[in-house]
Amino acid sequence: MGNRVIYLDHAATTYVKPEVFETMKPYFCEQFGNASSIYTLGRESKKAVEEAREKVARALGAQAREIYFTGSGSEADNWAIKGIASANKKKGNHIITSAIEHPAIMNSCKYLESEGFEVTYLPVDSDGVVSLEDLKKAVKDTTILISIMFANNEIGTIQHIKEIGAFAREKGIYFHTDAVQAIGNVAIDVEKMNIDLLSLSSHKFYGPKGVGALYVRKGVKISSFIHGGAQERGKRASTENLPGIIGLGKAIELAVENMDSYNTKLLDLREKTIEGLMAKVPYIRLNGHRTNRLPGNVNISFQYIEGESLLLMLDMIGVCGSSGSACSSGSLDPSHVLMAIGLPHEIAHGSLRLTFGEENTQEDVDFLLEEIPKIVSKLRDMSPLYEAIKNKK
Ligand SMILES: *Cc1c(COP(=O)(O)O)cnc(C)c1O
């Protein structure tokens, strides 16, 4: 990574750890055999894929045969939603999800609505938390699936997954969670948490892009997603993405191994940033739960400025962050997540998300606390609205 870049967008993607890359390398040019082939070169590929599957299973408290590799987190989400809907439609056509899901869940649900399914989008409170009471009230005889994300990618709020899982189990309804942001940040045990399906994506925890996995509890009725050969036990055809899968396996192993020290470090950077900005900049608001949030997530709305302008100014000094606007570029609508926690449009538009990662340091935080207040004042000085407020005082 270049000297002068401070990368603070780990929720969007991470770099590949050198150790992960080293593990992947032989599987491009030398150990390239097709895992379905019966000669030694193929069998060795197969063995490496199964070892990676074991590693994913171990990280989740699952069994290896419950792990299916996919082409991304989005694919795992699509498969969970559409695959459960299609395999269980005789039982019912109702799905419950939340108003703050990733577009991969949201738009899969929208698609199913167009196909005659009924979807309840549970609201969240001002911290972004789904209420168990609301969930209980939303359940019908026709409910076949509850899908609630583990931790939110924009505001970092972590849900009461164990309680939701226990309730779903008691009702005999399948429970899926999009845990893409949670892996490596929160300890996960699919048994203790009564999770039936779980999505993850390698590039959010220092693995390569374009590879993910879906955990499907043994006995869960789900349709195949890609029809073709017999790969992934006939559920997801495609010649295996060998280097990708090997990389995912190594990355998840490291993520779980390093979770405690990683958390401690990120939490410290997060808290110093939040507290520093709160102390130095007036008219701001922290979005997401104050404590029950991802260790590296800071999401703040700055009144009287545009998040986009703030991002551009940060980019000029080498800081990579993200705005609270919809990630669908070109859209001027504020994010559905910030709307769901009740922010007015004009405040949502002034939002900034900074997500810390492994290579960030205390110096990065010092730099932010030095520069952001200056940028914010500069931008506010150009705002007629802010002028009016200042003059009133
Ligand atoms: C990034 C992300 C996804 C999508 O994963 P891809 O591998 O990029 O398709 C899904 N859900 C959440 C919460 C994410 O943060």
Automatic annotation (TrEMBL):
Needed cofactors: pyridoxal 5'-phosphate
Task performed by this protein: Master enzyme that delivers sulfur to a number of partners involved in Fe-S cluster assembly, tRNA modification or cofactor biosynthesis. Catalyzes the removal of elemental sulfur atoms from cysteine to produce alanine. Functions as a sulfur delivery protein for Fe-S cluster synthesis onto IscU, an Fe-S scaffold assembly protein, as well as other S acceptor proteins.
GO cellular component terms attached to this protein's record: L-cysteine desulfurase complex
Modification N6-(pyridoxal phosphate)lysine, positions: K204
Active-site residues, as the UniProt record annotates them: C327
Top EC class for this record: transferase
GO molecular function: 2 iron, 2 sulfur cluster binding; cysteine desulfurase activity; metal ion binding; pyridoxal phosphate binding
Residues annotated as domain Aminotransferase class V: 6-368
Subunit-structure text: Homodimer. Forms a heterotetramer with IscU, interacts with other sulfur acceptors.
Name the record gives this protein: Cysteine desulfurase IscS
Organism: Ruminiclostridium cellobioparum subsp. termitidis CT1112
Record-listed [2Fe-2S] cluster binding positions: C327
Positions that bind pyridoxal 5'-phosphate: G73, S74, N153, Q181, S201, S202, H203, T239
Enzyme Commission (EC) number: 2.8.1.7
Family statement drawn from the similarity comment of this UniProt entry: Belongs to the class-V pyridoxal-phosphate-dependent aminotransferase family. NifS/IscS subfamily.
Gene name of the record: iscS
